[in-house]
Design goal:
The complex is a heterodimer. Chain A is an all-alpha fold. Chain A has twelve helices and no strands. The longest helix of chain A has 30 residues. The longest helix of chain B is centred in the C-terminal third of the chain and has 16 residues. In chain B, 44% of the residues are buried. By secondary structure, chain B is α/β, with parallel strands linked by helices. In chain B, the strands form two sheets. Chain B has a six-stranded mixed β-sheet, sandwiched between helices. A four-stranded antiparallel β-sheet of chain B has the order 2-1-4-5, with helices on one face. The chains are: A mainly alpha, B alpha/beta. Chains A and B meet through helix 1 and helix 5 of A and helix 2 of B.
């Protein structure tokens, strides 16, 4: 009940937050633009791939860190109430993520809904986009709250947030390419799979690309990925890995919050 | 001061942030029906002491006790404390009504003052349902005061309570503080306005570099320093230290 009270207040606050509303509008405008350019919903969603993979982690991490620091004094006021810290953290985390997940869902779904493109044919692909976007939101929001709880200096926290986003979305890919080039004479299927699971953005990219049938364009690598991740076990491994990428940062952030001196 | 009747107290509390010792072996008591002023220059440890009492800061050594029982590291004891932080930043899209309802819902079984009474006492009516983001600093501070006095706790901690308030609101808050003291509540107050503390405080705790340099009644402070005013007494104390 106490968690719900905090959650309700957070949702009421963030659902009227101009940055959250801008995020919704930005996603809707991008989806609409891609729909107008490509002329079909599946193509528009294909075009959204990099938007989801780059924009969602960036917005969520930066917004999460900024929100942590701007609401810190109010968090202290809530901490002065007879509320277990763990319960308060759950309320703050869910209160932050639910409006952002809704903003994402509305942003990419609304244009398709207005164009009457929400058909059974597009449903699995759209569902996968919603699932992956939700997972990335939950993961990077937890990372943002962990940064907030461990870095009191606002600028350092923002720098760390941008650094983590850059490492996960750009630097990591460069390292993977370097690794694949240097060890190209070796069988790399298993190390590459391990590397993919070790980064939530890469994992999200692979899941979406397999759903988009883009794996066919990746030759042998795509065939390996489709073979490993396409079946029941692969889906289970993917879902488990995404869940761990939510759970581990959330646990780390919750632990830091509980131990923190405010 | 006799700690037997203390509502809230610290015993041998020390706190370090990295290499910096912020509180060193601080033992102090808050007595029912008395206003205790915590004084000290910037960086003396006043805010850390407040936050330690509230459990926002965990001491490296020592304990916080409520009615004689150790409560360090627990949460439920805060049901007995009302807290007014220094100039809080409320979520800008919430209204005073939302904030009061939220805080009320976090202590569902606690006896509380009628919200209408607080709205009238702190003149919140004109902006009660307006987003706090568009309210002035003084209006937000009035909401802050209403939150601190919403329940009927044994202890009230006020950090610079009149900062940003206009004279009318400031006077109303001081009257309220006196009324709460007369109801038997223990009140801890920090302020840079010494005349205000002189008007309200019964006891004084003077902190310097994280150590208590004086603890006693306002009268005892004046007597021991020979100061005619609190300001003179404090400056004498600082020179002696």
């Amino acid at each position: 009940m106490l968690i719900l009270a905090v959650l309700r207040a957070q949702v009421a606050e963030l659902s009227r937050n101009r940055w959250v509303l801008s995020y919704t509008v930005l996603l809707a405008v991008l989806t609409e633009a891609l729909y107008q350019l490509s002329g079909s919903a599946p193509r528009a969603l294909s075009g959204l791939l990099n938007v989801v993979l780059l924009l969602v982690p960036l917005v969520i991490t930066v917004f999460g860190v900024v929100y942590w620091h701007t609401s810190r004094e109010f968090t202290e006021l809530l901490l002065a109430q007879p509320l277990p810290r763990r319960a308060l953290w759950c309320g703050l985390y869910l209160g932050l993520t639910i409006p952002l997940v809704l903003a994402y869902a509305v942003g990419i779904t609304l244009p398709l809904l207005l164009h009457r493109e929400l058909t059974a044919a597009i449903a699995p692909l759209l569902a996968m986009y919603l699932l992956v976007g939700t997972a990335l939101t939950l993961c990077f929001a937890a990372i943002a709250l962990w940064i907030g709880a461990t870095q009191d200096d606002r600028l350092k926290a923002l720098g760390l947030a941008l650094g983590i986003w850059f490492a996960a979305t750009v630097l990591y890919d460069g390292l993977v390419v370097w690794f694949a080039t240097v060890y190209s004479d070796w069988p790399l299927e298993k190390p590459m799979l391990a590397l993919m699971f070790a980064n939530p953005v890469d994992l999200a990219r692979t899941v979406l690309m397999l759903q988009l049938d883009s794996a066919a364009l990746m030759g042998y690598t795509g065939a390996v990925l489709a073979n490993v991740l396409g079946g029941y076990r692969g889906a289970l491994a993917t879902i488990t890995a995404l869940a761990l990428w939510i759970l581990l940062p959330a646990l780390a952030a919750g632990r830091s919050f509980v131990k923190k001196d405010f | 001061m006799n700690s037997l009747n203390a509502v809230l107290e610290t015993r041998g509390v020390s706190k370090r942030f990295g290499r910096t010792s912020v509180l060193h072996d601080v033992s102090m008591t808050l007595m029912p029906g008395r206003v205790t002023a915590v004084l000290g220059p910037n960086g003396s440890g006043k805010t850390t002491l407040n936050k330690t009492l509230l459990g926002l800061v965990r001491p490296n050594a020592g304990d916080v006790l409520l009615n004689g029982a150790t409560v360090t590291g627990t949460d439920a004891y805060r049901a007995h404390i009302g807290y007014m932080p220094q100039a809080p930043r409320f979520p800008e899209n919430l209204s005073a009504r939302d904030v009061l309802k939220l805080v009320l819902s976090l202590r569902p079984h606690a006896p509380h003052v009628a919200i209408d009474e607080l709205v009238a006492a702190f003149d919140l009516e004109s902006f009660y349902t307006r987003s706090l983001g568009v309210c002035s600093g003084g209006q937000r501070q009035r909401v802050n005061a209403a939150v601190a006095l919403l329940f009927e706790p044994a202890v009230i901690i006020l950090d610079e309570p009149t900062a940003g308030l206009d004279p009318v609101s400031s006077a109303a808050l001081k009257d309220r503080i006196i009324a709460e003291r007369n109801k038997g509540r223990a009140i801890l107050m920090t302020s840079h306005v010494l005349s205000e503390l002189e008007e309200l405080a019964d006891d004084v705790v003077f902190l310097l570099e994280g150590k208590i340099r004086f603890q006693g009644t306002l009268e005892a402070l004046r007597t021991s320093t020979g100061g005619l005013t609190l300001e003179r007494s404090i400056s004498t104390l600082m020179l002696q230290c």
